[in-house]
Amino acid sequence: MGTLLKNPAPTGVRGVHVAWFILTLAGALLIAEWSVRLALPDYDPAGQIRFTQDAKAGVLLGQRNTTARQIKNSGDYNVAVRINRHGFRDIQDVSQGTERDLYIVGDSFTFGWGVEENLRFSSRLAKLTGRRVFNISASVNIDSYTKLISYAESLGAGVRDVVIAINMIDDFAEILPPEATPAIPDALFNGRHFLYRAKLALLTHSAFYFALTTSLKSSKWLNAVLVELGLVIALKDRVWGAPPERAVKDSVAALSKISSKYRLTLMLIPSRGLWQGDKIDELAAYHKRVRKSLVDAGLHVVDLRPALEAAGSPLRFHFRNDGHWNPHGHAFAAEHLSKHLRQAR
Questions:
Q1: Are residues 266 and 170 in the same domain?
Q2: Do the domain assignments include residue 92?
Q3: Other C-beta atoms within 10 Å of 186: how many?
């Protein structure tokens, strides 16, 4: 007698089971999400720092009159970020600035990503120089720095002395006409970039995901497993390559225009890829080439690379799992920059 086979469940029944499973999973995730938001408010995405396109400034700024938190799920930092009424992260009011003051412009490094406001190099620079220093940086690139300065002037600031901190990783950009639409890079469609964008969306919308990944990354062996599976991208693999020559040329031209109106100092923030990863030689050549382009254009350049390397172990000035400077990096930059500013007087 042959083995009796049970009839498989009808398609409709299987569909009901799948639907119930999905509903149960969704309910569990919803409960987990709100439980984390209530129990661990620091992980609530609503309390995280947000940047928006500011209509008055014409650039991306922090949300005016807000206090939020900036947290790294690897545990590198958890700091308060206060944005003033003008959209800047500065306890001072730039509308009261005069030509005797110093204005610091830059991207996320200068904004003080991951460090308390009073520990940024701009705040330390004020103490070292005895001058009032206004930080008018934002999470933008060189193509927006003129707008930041113009916006400060529109508020009433008298701008003369400007320091622009150039992030050599990704600050150079092609300057497009206002009516032009930037092309979408092919990198946006590759798997690794898609994974990064998906993770970023989860980090900015889900407290449960933020808490879960924080817990996973706190374990070295679990984090190593995630890296091996490709679910976490190691910092050494997130160093971007050199931008195209057109971006460098356009950016140098934009900086030259700023220099023609203000007393400008450029501070070069070297890519950590100079000391880590598989693009050391490529980035070293790029750094040297860009520095020469800036100097040849007659711009006053303060290159931090030699000083950082002379100090030994340059990576110790960065967060362990984040490419930005830690408080020691900001302190080092302030000390080095203040010496150059005193010599330039």
A1: yes
A2: no
A3: 8
For residue 50, is it within any domain? no
Strand partners, 265: 163
Give me the percent of the chain exceeding a pLDDT of 70.
Answer: 71
The reply to whether 296 and 167 lie within a common domain is yes
DSSP letter string, 200-243:
HHHHTT-HHHHHHHHHHHTSHHHHHHHHHHTSS--GGG----PP
Q: Give me the number of domains the chain comprises.
A: 2
- For 87: left if phi > 0, alpha if psi spans -120 to 50, otherwise beta; the answer is left
pLDDT digits (tens, 9 = 90+) for 81-123: 999 999 999 999 999 999 999 999 999 999 999 999 999 999 9
Whether 288 maps to a domain, the answer reads yes
The residue ranking higher by pLDDT, 167 or 25, is 167
Residues 235, 322: contact at Cβ < 8 Å?
A: yes
Question: Whole domain around residue 292: which residue ranges?
Answer: 98-176+240-344
When pLDDT is cut at 50, 70 and 90, the band that residue 244 belongs to is confident
Q: Are residues 35 and 135 in the same domain?
A: no
Proportion of the chain in helix, strand, coil states, percent, rounded to 5: 50, 15, 35
Specify the pLDDT at position 128. 96
pLDDT above 80: residue 229: no
Q: Check residue 120 and report its DSSP letter.
A: S
29: its two tokens:
């995730």
The model carries a pTM of: 0.78
The answer, yes or no, to whether residue 268 has pLDDT greater than 70, is: yes
Residue type, position 293, single letter: S
Domain presence at residue 207: no
CATH number at residue 290: 3.40.50.1110
Q: Please check whether residues 152 and 278 belong to one and the same domain.
A: yes
What does DSSP say about strands 102-105 and 66-71: parallel, antiparallel, or unpaired?
Answer: unpaired
Sign for the CA dihedral angle at 194, 43, 322, 184 comes to positive
Length of the chain (residues): 345
CB 174 within 8 A of CB 247: yes
- Does one domain contain both 244 and 145? yes
Q: Write out the E strands in the chain.
A: 51-53, 60-62, 66-71, 78-83, 102-105, 133-135, 161-167, 263-269, 301-303
